[in-house]
């Protein structure tokens, strides 16, 4: 059984169901005691900014801001370096607790035995 789950979410408001699924799985995993690392890439990069998750709406889905808060509290949230740069997002812009890191860090997180990775 995996002891760590790494989730890379590439979708944002452009694909709300896929985006919500990623955040829901991350939130449920944290609540279940799984070590979670949530990576924000592509259009999901915007959720690293204050207030953006609260603006997200999808009928019958858990509130995105609550899911993000739970992952920040019990896991780790990382914003892709290149995705941040493409959107002119810097470390001073992001929610407290969100780190900015690149592919090398992602690979180091998914390579150990017992780690499972999901991409949405």
UniProtKB/TrEMBL annotation:
It comes from the Bacteria. Gene3D superfamilies: DsrEFH-like. SUPFAM superfamilies: DsrEFH-like. InterPro entries: DsrEFH-like, Sulphur_relay_DsrE/F-like. This is Predicted peroxiredoxin. It comes from Actinacidiphila rubida.
